[in-house]
Write a structure and sequence with these properties.
This protein is mainly α and 224 residues long. The chain contains 7 helices and no strands. The longest helix has 33 residues. It is globular.
């Protein structure tokens, strides 16, 4: 297995590459949690509502992530390097394969008491599709994003809140020195909203998975 890229650049600074890979870390972290929880004889009935909410949050985040790539990241990268066309075509095709799985997951997670086996099978399939997809992005695209070291200011307060929620999700389990560098590149309106967003996410995470904070990774691979 190849060595995963570091979240920070070689000079110790954060970049748009850091933000993208923190999202990758979040997807891998949550998929691990879903797999471990669903791969047991029976999910406790008291946990099913929290798991359904966690799935809805996960699938919405993944869908928005792919939309942002399709509409923004991929076209921008192709403008820099036309040699990425074949890679981007493959990644875009992966997005189209993943979307139906998310819809099937919605149905399975709607009633885990009767569909736990289906939910587990879907999460396993999603994991098998997403892992090589993320690894390809990290190997082929991340080097072109290292030089981008500013995050565009949100256009509205609502957009700032949306981004704050996303960063709160992605930051959970990332090393504090990485987060310090990430904070240094974020606009003030986003920094103002992050403490509350992170606290709220920690509360939700504990409610679903039974722990408040764990892990201090410096790569897109969770260390816990």
């Amino acid at each position: 297995m190849s060595t995963p890229p570091t979240l920070l650049n070689d000079d110790g600074t954060a970049s748009i590459a850091t933000a993208l890979m923190m999202s990758h870390h979040g997807f891998r972290r949550d998929l691990r949690r879903f797999l471990a929880t669903l791969d047991q004889p029976a999910v406790p009935a008291a946990q099913t509502d929290a798991l359904r909410e966690a799935w809805q949050s996960f699938r919405t985040t993944l869908h928005h992530h792919h939309e942002a790539e399709d509409r923004g990241v991929f076209p921008s990268l192709l403008g820099q390097e036309r040699g990425l066309a074949q890679v981007v075509d493959g990644l875009t095709a992966d997005h189209r394969r993943i979307d139906p799985l998310l819809e099937r997951g919605d149905r399975a997670f709607s009633d885990l008491l009767t569909s736990q086996a289906d939910a587990l099978a879907i999460v396993r399939e999603l994991n098998s599709l997403l892992e090589p997809h993320l690894a390809t992005e990290e190997a082929e695209l991340i080097p072109f994003l290292r030089a981008a070291k500013t995050f565009p200011p949100p256009a509205s307060d609502a957009e700032a809140e949306f981004y704050a929620q996303g960063f709160a999700w992605a930051m959970h389990g990332v090393a504090s020195d990485v987060l310090d560098q990430m904070y240094a590149m974020l606009p003030a309106i986003l920094l103002e909203k992050l403490p509350a967003a992170r606290s709220a996410f920690e509360d939700r995470y504990e409610r679903v998975w039974g722990e408040r904070s764990k892990g201090a990774t410096r790569t897109p691979i969770p260390d816990a």
